[in-house]
Amino acid sequence: MARPAAKYKAPPAPTGPAPASRRKRATPSSGSAPEHVERNRAAWERWAPGFEPAARRAWKDEELRWGIWGLAESELQLLTSLELDTDVVELGCGTATVSAWLARHGARPVAVDFARAQIDAVGRLQLAFGVPFRTVCGNAEKLEFDDESFDLAISEYGVSLWSEPDRWLPEAHRLLRPGGRLIFVTNSAFLMACTPSTGGRAEEALVRDYFSMAKVEFDEEDAVEFHPTHGEWVRALVAAHFVLEDLIEVRPPPNAVARFDFASLDWARSWPSEEIWVARKAG
After folding, report:
1. What are the chain's domains?
2. Residue 110 pairs with which residues in a beta bridge?
3. Would you call 17 exposed, middle or buried from its count of C-beta atoms within 10 A (0-12, 13-18, 19+)?
4. Which residues pair with 71 in a beta bridge?
5. What is the pLDDT of residue 31?
6. Bridge partners, residue 90, by sequence
7. CB atoms near residue 25 (< 10 Å)
8. How far is Cα 64 from Cα 74, in angstroms, rounded to an integer?
9. DSSP helix, strand, coil percent of the chain (3-state; round to 5)
C-alpha cells in the first residue's frame, strides 16, 4: 500500500550461529532474483533506518505484539504450543522482533531478510539487548537451508506481503519438517479493496477491483505488494501441500491504538483490517 509501504514491515533480523544440523549453507542463494524481489529489496534498503527507533521499543517490551494493532501474544496465543529448542525460521524478519521474543523463550530462531540494512539493524539490536540468534540476508523465496530444517515458519508482514505466494509458500513447505506449522500475518483482502491507489487510510467504500489485487503497486512507490483474495490464498496453500488450520480475521478491542495508520479503529472494528493464517505441513 502506498503508505511508506514499508510501514507494514514487522520485525527485522538478528545475528548468531545456527547449529550446522539445521542448515546446509546459511547464505543467500545465487542467481538473479525476480524483478519484484529486487524492487522490494531496494525499497527496504531505503526504508529500514526509519524503523529502528520503533524496533528498540518493541525489543524492550516483554510482550510480543502482533500486527497493525499490536495485539498481545498472551491474548492471541499463536505460540502457546512452542517447546524449548523449537527450530523457527522468520521469513522477512524486518527488525526481528518476533525472533528476539522467540529466542528469549527458549526457541532457536533464524531471522531471514533480503535487505542488508535490516540485518545490520538487527545486529545492533542484538548487541544492545544481549539476545543472540542467527540472521541470514537472503531471498526467502529461495533459501539454501536443507529440506525439513525447521518446526515453525513465521511471517508477520514479511514474505507474506512482499513476496509472490506461488514462490514463497512451496519454499516454506520445503523448509518445514513433517507436522511443522506456518503462521503468517498480512493485510485483509477487504482492507485492500477499500484502500485507494494513493495509499493512506481505508475508506468506507470499495475503491478497487477485488479480483485484481494479487499484485499491487501504489502511486509514487517503486515496490510491489501481494494481496491475494481468500480463495487465492487457499488454493496457493493447497498447491503447496499445506493443510489450513485457521484463519483469524482480526478485530481490535475498543481501546486499541494502531501502530500504522492504515485504518481507523471504527473501521477496523466493523471490517477486518488484517488476517492471521495458520497452516500445517502434513505428516
Report:
1. 5-281 (3.40.50.150)
2. 89, 134
3. exposed
4. 66
5. 53
6. 111, 154
7. 11
8. 8
9. 35, 20, 45
Q: What is the DSSP string of 37-57?
A: HHHHHHHHHHHGGGGHHHHHH
Q: Each residue's pLDDT tens digit in the chain (283 positions)?
A: 222 332 223 333 333 333 322 333 333 343 578 999 999 999 999 999 999 999 999 999 999 999 999 999 999 999 998 999 999 999 999 999 999 999 999 999 999 999 999 999 999 999 999 999 999 999 999 999 999 999 999 999 999 999 999 999 999 999 999 999 999 999 999 999 999 988 889 999 999 899 988 888 887 778 999 999 999 999 999 999 999 999 999 999 999 999 989 999 999 999 999 999 999 998 7
Strands 274-281 and 176-187: antiparallel
Pair type for strands 134-137 and 108-113: parallel
Exposed/middle/buried for residue 23 (C-beta within 10 Å: 0-12, 13-18, 19+): buried
Spatial separation of the C-alpha atoms in residues 186 and 198, rounded to whole Å: 19
Residue 125's region, left for phi above 0, alpha for psi from -120 to 50, else beta, is alpha
pTM of the predicted structure, to 2 decimals: 0.88
Distance CA 280, CA 171 (A): 14
Residue with cell 479480483: 211
Distance (Å, rounded) from C-alpha 153 to C-alpha 147? 13
For every residue of 57-99, DSSP letters joined together read: HHHH-SS-EETTTTEEHHHH-SSTT--TT-EEEEES-TT-HHH
Q: Which residues pair with 28 in a beta bridge?
A: 143
Q: Please, is 28 exposed, middle or buried when counting C-beta atoms within 10 Å of its C-beta (0-12, 13-18, 19+)?
A: middle
pLDDT at 15: 31
